[in-house]
Design goal:
This protein is of the alpha+beta class and 220 residues long. It is built from eight helices and eleven strands. Strand 4 and strand 5 form a beta hairpin. The termini are far apart. The relative contact order is 0.14.
Length: 220
């Protein structure tokens, strides 16, 4: 796991913990490492999840499918980020979503009980781990509120403008790269891909945006 220390250092779970101490914690936490190809199913709806996951390489999507198979991407989790903590810490841990890989991916899984219960070998760090988990859960709630701002817009154009504006604001510049291809972006915003692509074309023709694949630039 030593070669993944730079990634783990970025993970919210290990925030403010020195690299040499992370290795000691990993031994204490008894992590499981797994490798998946692209579009692999890590967890499916109904699974009883009791682990917190961390993406080492690649990326995953948290997805929801309705009765007719229409997919919505709830969030994308990339290298150094966590997933599954909300379900693993809940009393009812049955998943209501799917967790799939967006590309070839390596992850580690940590039993949530190992995080919240202190032990003799690493007890000095467990309070910090709990604080970090709570902070990350709060930030996830904020991110979901932001997404609600996108998908509750009435039209496809309004959803696109809201999302792209937020991306530019987060990057602090008008040019940026989004983490989705066209189908994934449509699934994320809960719109039809063809209608979205047509709207993007109209916005480009009107001079509002310039784009090439997942590279965008907003114009005033």
């Amino acid at each position: 796991m030593e070669k993944y220390l730079p990634v783990l250092k970025r993970c919210p779970l290990f925030q403010t913990i020195a690299e040499q101490d992370i290795l000691a914690l990993l031994n204490c936490l008894t992590v499981k490492k797994k490798k998946y190809e692209k579009d692999a199913l890590i967890f499916c709806p109904g699974d009883d999840i009791s682990s917190v996951g961390i993406v080492l390489t690649g990326a995953i999507h948290i997805e929801s499918d309705d009765f007719w198979g229409n997919r919505t991407i709830i969030s994308r989790v990339e290298s150094g980020e966590m997933f599954g903590e909300s379900f693993s810490f809940a009393e009812d841990r049955a998943l209501s979503v799917s967790i799939t890989t967006a590309e070839p991916t390596k992850i580690i899984l940590i039993d949530y009980k190992k995080i919240i219960k202190t032990c003799s070998s690493a007890c000095n760090f467990h309070t910090r781990l709990i604080q970090n988990i709570l902070r990350n859960l709060a930030e996830q709630n904020i991110a979901l509120v932001s997404k609600m701002e996108f998908i509750t817009q009435r039209t496809t154009r309004e959803k696109l403008l809201s999302y792209l504006s937020t991306c530019a604001r987060n990057e602090k510049k008008p040019s940026f790269e989004i983490p989705f291809n066209r189908q994934q972006l449509a699934d994320f915003l809960s719109v039809e891909r063809s209608a979205m692509s047509a709207e993007l074309g109209r916005m480009r023709d009107e001079g509002l945006i310039v784009f090439n694949k997942n590279q965008f630039k907003l114009s005033k």
